[in-house]
Write a structure and sequence with these properties.
It holds the Pfam family adh_short_C2. InterPro entries: KR_dom, NAD(P)-bd_dom_sf, Sc_DH/Rdtase_CS, SDR_fam. This is Glucose 1-dehydrogenase. Belongs to the short-chain dehydrogenases/reductases (SDR) family. The protein is an alpha/beta fold. It has 8 helices and 7 strands, in the order βαβαβαβαβαβαααβ. It has a 7-stranded parallel sheet with strand order 3-2-1-4-5-6-7, sandwiched between helices. The N and C termini lie far apart (about 40 Å).
Length: about 250
């Protein structure tokens, strides 16, 4: 097991990619604090066994983040891994987007990574070791017209990953990102598979001819958290079925 006796914090951990990452961390031997604003996370943590705990928090609020870090230290004594995964979207064209919705998405997607990253890094500095993983997206590079704050936040996350890595490298802390393409979370399954047209739109720009699974993103997170990635920092790895390499559409079966 690559992460035996390590302690991981995973935000946005009650479903989808976050839950898959928590499950993979535990499978690799880590103890995990699942963090989410949704109280049903307690049930998800209970199903994962003695290696899991749950803390309800709005990770875009500093007081909640500080309390989450304190609770993790009280339960586990240290923090070796942070997976910054909490995020939301909001669909609206540029001319119709409200200030409040722009601010909300930026607060949850971007500010939360700054707050959690800073608070956890202060613990890791005392340990002189740690791995922080920020969940980005192919939409850090590719824009969707009606996803203005989401696209902006993901582009900013890539730069945050780089600047964090440069600041923390002398303390033995590595900071990397993951940029998923279309991953079949429950919400994505409903959206992507809702009609043949929506399915074909996604698959026509995905050379591998299929969407990804949450577990495939979690496997990259496990790699980045482990010593297998000991010489990697400041990087964002794209788990996208080849989408970023494509400059045309492909036929769909």
């Amino acid at each position: 097991m690559k992460l035996l006796n390590k302690v991981a914090v995973v935000t946005g951990a009650t479903q989808g990619i976050g839950l898959a990452c928590a499950q993979r961390m535990i499978a690799e031997g880590a103890k995990v604090m699942l963090v989410d604003i949704k109280p049903e996370g307690a049930e998800a943590a209970a199903k994962l066994g003695e290696q899991a705990r749950f803390f309800a928090a709005d990770v875009s609020q500093k007081a909640d983040v500080d309390a989450m870090v304190a609770a993790t230290l009280a339960d586990f004594g240290r923090i070796d891994i942070l997976i910054n995964n909490a995020g939301v979207t909001h669909a609206a064209n540029f001319l119709d987007l409200c200030e409040e919705d722009f601010d909300r998405v930026m607060r949850i997607n971007l500010k939360s990574m700054f707050l959690c990253g800073q608070a956890v890094a202060r613990v890791m500095v005392r340990q002189q070791s740690g791995s922080i993983i920020n969940m980005s997206s192919v939409n850090a590079e590719l824009a969707i017209p009606n996803q203005v704050p989401y696209v902006v936040s993901k582009g900013a996350i890539n730069q945050l990953t780089k600047v964090m890595s440069l600041n923390l490298v002398t303390h033995g802390i590595r900071v990397n990102g993951i940029g998923p393409g279309t991953i079949l979370t429950e919400l994505a399954r409903q959206a992507v598979m809702a009609s043949p047209e929506s399915r074909n739109t996604i698959l026509s720009r995905t050379p591998m001819g299929r969407c990804g699974e949450p577990e495939e993103v979690a496997s990259i997170a496990a790699f980045l958290a482990s010593d297998d990635a000991s010489y990697m920092t400041g990087q964002t790895l794209y788990v996208d079925g080849g989408r970023l390499a494509l400059n045309y559409t492909v036929p769909v079966k």
